[in-house]
Amino acid sequence: MSRNRLDQLRKLPKVELHRHLDGSVRFETILDLSRLHAIDLGTENREELLKKTKLTSPMRNLEAVLDSFWTTQKVLASYEAIKRVTFENIEDAFRDGVRLLELRFAPVFISEGKDLENDEILEGVLDGMSEGMDRYPVQVGLIFIVPRTLDLEKNRAAFKEMLSYRKSGHRNSHRLCGFDLADSEDAFEAERFTQFVEQARQEGLGITIHTGENTSPKHVWKSLEVYQPDRIGHGIKAWEDPKLVDQLVEKGIHLELCPTSNYITRSVKTLEEHPLPRFHAKGMPLSINADDPHLFDIDLVHEYEICARVFGLGEKEFLDINREALPYSFLEEDIVAFVGKHLEEEL
For the whole model, what pTM was predicted? Predict the structure, then answer.
């Protein structure tokens, strides 16, 4: 695709609802933070480290990809490091043309193996987000993740502290607006996490669930039954069940789609097989997302380029997708309305 066309795609105002801040760390930031904190990343060779932290071709499976997260996880070792990475995620999103961004993070994943408290993590994320919004015209929301395979009681403690911070008056703490279940979906029965989801909903958080990424339509059906989510992370296996697709459309459940991520994790065999354009043709509410851009060595514009070149989507489809994605944001209505007004002015 020509440079001029890529520039046009970059300028398109975008809504991104699925980006993991703790899974997308710039390579130079990994180097800086590992030196600062004297962290052993398993190699001091730059090329070897690139191979460990950049996944550019299909891996064995999703679990193999998740293993790569643990290299970058090591450098999230302090309040300052977390603040920096959060800020840089917002800066990256702004450069992609994003006007509303929802970043998700898992305190229990970040703290694993470290002497790092939940309050340090939450304040690092909140303060990095505030600094990012001070610098760039991006409205940001935060989604709290419970990783299914990590310690349940640690997840419970982090969840409780997040809810406290949300009411604390800490700057922009009201932007803790969503809840997500992530990590290996078939590791436990869905009911194990029902209490988290119910409490999150009672507290006014939007609910999104990682489901149907590398599993099956049955897992998506189960997530609908047990969790009643507002949105679904990935959900691409739903396409294999026409009744499920109809159900998702009927209920207006939004799919957060990430083509390159699904290709790297072998959730789809080829990009051409990705169901994104077919979901769109069926009227499915959806968004286009980068998931973990630095891990996959991409940016969000790369995903738009795929949608244009491989799926045949044009500017009208992109504008429609972003307009329709905006109301599914978990941010407060006045923030969403503010972004919507400015989106229309840009268009």
Answer: 0.96
SS (H, E, C) the chain: CCHHHHHHHHHCCEEEEEEEHHHCCCHHHHHHHHHHCCCCCCCCCHHHHHHHHCCCCCCCCHHHHHHHHHHHHCCCCCHHHHHHHHHHHHHHHHHCCEEEEEEEECHHHHHCCCCCCHHHHHHHHHHHHHHHHHHCCCEEEEEEEEECCCCHHHHHHHHHHHHHHHCCCCCCHHHEEEEEEECCHHHCCHHHHHHHHHHHHHCCCEEEEEECCCCCHHHHHHHHHHHCCCEEEECHHHHHCHHHHHHHHHHCCEEEECHHHHHHCCCCCCHHHCCHHHHHHCCCCEEECCECCCCCCCCHHHHHHHHHHCCCCCHHHHHHHHHHHHHHCCCCHHHHHHHHHHHHHHC
- Residues of the chain whose pLDDT is less than 50? none
Query: How many domains does the chain fold into?
Result: 1
pLDDT of residue 38: 92
pLDDT at 49: 85
Enclosing domain of residue 48: 3-346
Residue 70: CATH number of its domain: 3.20.20.140
16 is catalytic: no
The per-residue pLDDT for 312 is 97
Q: Would you state the pLDDT for residue 57?
A: 81
Q: In this predicted structure, what is the pLDDT of residue 227?
A: 98
From 120, 161, 213, 256, active-site residue: 213
Phi then psi for residue 319, to 5 deg, are: -65, -40
